[in-house]
Amino acid sequence: MTGNFVKKIENALLVKSQQLEVVLKKYEIMPDHIHLFIKYTPHHKISGVIGQLKGYSSYILRKIYPKYRKKYKHLWSPSYYCETVGHISEATIKKYIDNQWQSAERDGKY
Question: What total number of domains does the chain contain?
Answer without folding.
Answer: 1
